[in-house]
Amino acid sequence: MAAYRGRFAPSPTGPLHAGSLVAALASWLDARAHGGTWLVRIEDVDTPRCLPGMDRTVLQQLARCGLVSDEPVVWQSQRGALYQQALERLVQQGHAYPCGCSRKDIETALQAQGTGRERHHIAVYPGTCRPERGGLQGKPARAWRLQIPGLSDVRWTDRRLGRQTQNVATEVGDFVLKRADGLWAYQLAVVVDDAAQGITHVVRGEDLTDNTARQILLQRALGLPTPDYLHTPLVLGDNGEKLSKQNGAQPLDLSDPITALSQAANVLGLHNTTARPALALDSWTSEWGQRWIQRRGGAA
Ligand code: GLU
């Protein structure tokens, strides 16, 4: 088996909060418990949503908690050439195609079809610019989309949530790889980088579970391996939704990092401690290993 490599991949759209610290801590503990490598990757492809200097703030917050990348940090905004190569490969192999539809065009096509499906307020693309339907038909290319195969029930097993199935064709549709504004989509960047960095295990927040089937389809189309996935429990905000700045996330008080770390450990079901962060991290690592790592060839 390939040596364990995990990562924490924050988008620098705000400082770490109690929710994002849970994912950071869980991915770090999983890497340590496997005796593996833990990387930090700054996911700053959606530049309009990123705040200047926030990458440094997040890295400093992680360091205060004793969570430091084992290899130099990478920034997705500097990796466009890799995403371009992947897109070209997908196009050459008939897995991706240019799309000339505006939002309005998509709405009109869905109305004509009478079967508009939506997912998180994004319409399931009706396939207007698919090559077999005549392609762009004179329209300029705006975005690039992955052509989802018809039979695309993707099955995978999450280490915590168990078996998952998603029919990407009907539930999501041909999703965007490169956006009309020229920015790379999260799905393409994350798949290319997880493979380029040799990531064997992804540990991240449960709100991202729903993206995994899309990422697996992209990995298959690019001939890349699929890592193991574990999605961690979320911290909920005042309105019962995932904690964010908009629903009450307070900036982490890292004057005393063990308090913030203990709260994150608590969400992960780990024991409480008032020990120094380095000692607390050590004891949580053994507890995590007992809970989440299956021992091969013998009793767990
Ligand atoms: N950048 C994503 C976020 O901050 C995480 C992506 C991932 O872990 O796959 O929500």
Question: What features would you highlight for this structure?
Answer:
single chain, 300 residues, alpha/beta, three-stranded parallel β-sheet, three-stranded antiparallel β-sheet, 9 helices, 12 strands, 35% helix
Explained architecture:
The protein is α/β, with parallel strands linked by helices. The chain has nine helices and twelve strands. The strands form five sheets. Strands 1-2-3 form a three-stranded parallel beta sheet. A three-stranded antiparallel beta sheet has the order 4-7-10. The chain has a two-stranded antiparallel sheet with strand order 5-6. Helix 1 packs across helix 8 (257-267). The longest helix is centred in the first third of the chain and has 16 residues, at 18-33. The structure holds glutamic acid.
SSE diagram, text form:
Elements: E1 5-8, H1 18-33, E2 37-42, H2 54-64, E3 74-75, H3 80-92, E4 96-99, H4 103-113, E5 118-119, E6 122-123, E7 143-146, E8 153-158, E9 162-167, H5 168-171, E10 176-178, H6 186-196, E11 201-205, H7 212-222, E12 228-232, H8 257-267, H9 277-292
Parallel strand pairs: 1-2, 2-3, 11-12
Antiparallel strand pairs: 4-7, 5-6, 7-10, 8-9
Helix pairs in contact: 1-8, 1-9, 3-6, 6-7
The structure holds glutamic acid (GLU).
The site of glutamic acid has 7 residues, from loops.
Low-confidence regions: none
**Which range best describes the helical content: under 10%, 10-25%, 25-40%, 40-55%, 55-70% or over 70%?**
25-40%
Overall outline: elongated
What is the number of helices?
A: 9
